[in-house]
Write a structure and sequence with these properties.
The protein is built from 13 helices and 16 strands. Helices cover 36% and strands 17% of the residues. The protein is an alpha/beta fold. A hairpin with a 4-residue loop joins strand 2 (58-61) and strand 3. 52% of the residues are buried. The longest helix has 22 residues, at 346-367. Helix 3 (84-96) packs antiparallel against helix 10 (328-343), helix 4 packs parallel to helix 10 and helix 11 runs parallel beside helix 13. It binds pyridoxal-5'-phosphate. Pyridoxal-5'-phosphate binds at residues 74, 134-136, 139, 162-164, 232, 236-237, 265, 267-268, 293. The site of pyridoxal-5'-phosphate has 15 residues, from helix 5.
Length: 450
């Protein structure tokens, strides 16, 4: 396929894995060489095939290869790439107006997204929503709001946490390389508490793990100083760690009793990804503030903080905002995403993807002791790869398996503090035959690496 040939994405793109060149092919390699000359090396590349079109469950590259997508652009295109309602809503909005700045002359789309998030997020209390551009920006603002509300400064994040790459969110993020190394000093008054990690906690129940975290916080921070606790209900970059039942609810209870704002970072887990609209719903947990981004707008940059009205209204007039936050095009996309999730029953689809993936991966695990753990919820599933017998993380095997999958036309991502977790985030629009074929490819490359 010659460079710049327009190819239409969306669900009508042929849903097949098809390799017509080596991976990456010549057109991608040429583009990657240009990238090296034009873009700093700090922007890494997971898989250097350059995208020409994407939709349903495939990414088509500039060489004409069609790859199975188990990445969704890191959990963003949950409703599918160029999903029809999103594409139509964006096109209509671009025709009407592209920007005025919501803080200058506002518009209906922003207010409707806020109303929808107030409706969809857990809890029947009165809520408010403010919109931003990225997950990190929204997490930072959730902390600002919590500090304004409590008149306290300290913030606690957890082991293995990932909350972004801005200064405050780097401080909240746990892993040094590649996210933090050399970029300090980091924001002050950020502390870390131990997480519940069932695979590595040897039988520690959720409430006990919460007690351990609370002890650390009480001893090392003090509730009189603590504004907020920020947690991913299922950790994303940290390794798709699902805390033991009762961990989150015990933390929420403790926060409520101590005037500490409980902030759920649902940037990766939110918007139907885990088989509920939000991952906290699995635990019946109602956060004070909930942060969303990624899957919220089908690929357009949008993020939000939604929460209790009395907390959200704490900052003074003009204290929150930004030029682009809640851009009208991104808002139109978000409304179309919500319509798609509800109209197409995508929460049920996420559950059926979980069933297919877990059945297959558990069967692989039974025959392969290098698969230490199979975990996750909905279409957010991972395997943790270890050295058999010792359970020591095997980052090298993980890297080799991901690379071999890429060669076979399957987009997979790695994660985890120790780099030994293979994660699967297919779009909910992926057809069953591609889901199965992707798992076949994975099984074959795991076999090859034995
Ligand atoms: C849980 C979580 N929080 C925050 C972020 C940061 O979001 P963004 O990359 O949009 O700034 C991410 C991104 O991966 C994330 O997974």
């Amino acid at each position: 396929m010659p460079e710049n040939t327009p190819v239409t994405g969306g669900p009508d793109l042929p849903q097949r894995r098809r390799l017509v060149t080596e991976i990456p092919g010549p057109a991608s390699r040429a583009l990657q060489a240009r990238k090296h000359r034009a873009v700093p090396r700090g922007i890494g590349t997971t898989l250097p095939v350059y995208t020409a079109a994407a939709g349903g469950g495939v990414v088509v590259d500039v060489d004409g290869n069609s790859l199975i997508d188990f990445g969704s652009g890191i959990a963003v295109t949950t409703v599918g790439n160029s999903a029809p309602r999103v594409a139509a809503a964006v096109a209509a909005q671009v025709e009407a107006f592209t920007h005025t700045c919501f803080m200058v002359t506002p518009y209906d789309g922003y207010v409707r997204v806020a109303e929808e998030l107030n409706r969809l997020t857990p809890g029947s209390h009165e809520k408010r929503t403010v919109l931003f551009n990225s997950g990190a920006e929204a997490v930072e603002n959730a902390v600002k709001i919590a500090r304004a509300h409590t008149s306290k400064q300290s913030v606690v994040a957890f082991d293995h946490a990932y909350h972004g790459r801005t200064n405050l969110t780097m401080a909240l993020t746990a892993k040094n390389m590649p996210y933090k190394s050399g970029f300090g000093p980091f924001a002050a008054e950020v502390y870390r508490a131990p997480l519940s990690y069932p695979y590595r906690d040897s039988g520690l129940e959720g409430p006990e793990a919460a007690r351990r975290a609370i002890d650390t916080i009480e001893k090392q921070v003090g509730v009189e100083n603590l504004a907020a606790l920020v947690i991913e209900p299922i950790q994303g970059e940290g390794g798709f760690i699902v805390p033991a039942p009762g961990f989150l609810s015990a933390l929420v209870e403790w926060c409520q009793a101590n005037d500490v704002v409980f902030i759920a970072d649902e940037v990766q887990t939110g918007f139907a990804r885990t088989g509920e609209m939000f991952a906290v719903n699995h635990e019946g947990v109602v956060p004070d503030l909930i942060v969303t981004a990624k899957g919220i707008a089908g690929g357009l940059p949008l993020a939000a903080v939604t929460g209790r009205a009395e907390i959200m209204d704490a900052p003074h007039v003009g204290g929150l905002g930004g030029t682009y936050g809640g851009n009208p095009i991104a808002c139109a996309a978000a409304l179309a995403v919500i319509e798609t999730i509800e109209g197409d029953g995508l929460i049920d689809r996420a559950r059926s993807i979980e069933k297919t993936m877990k059945e297959r991966l558990t069967a692989l695990q039974q025959a392969d002791p290098r698969i230490g753990d199979v975990r996750g919820r909905g279409a957010m599933i991972a395997i943790e790869l270890v050295h058999p017998d010792t359970d020591i993380p095997d980052a090298e095997l993980t890297r080799r398996t991901a690379a071999a999958a890429h060669q076979q036309g399957l987009v997979v991502l790695t994660c985890g503090t120790h780099g030994n977790v293979l994660r699967f985030l297919p779009p909910l629009a992926i057809p069953d035959h591609l889901l199965t074929q992707g798992l076949d490819v994975l099984a074959a490359v795991l076999e090859e690496t034995r």
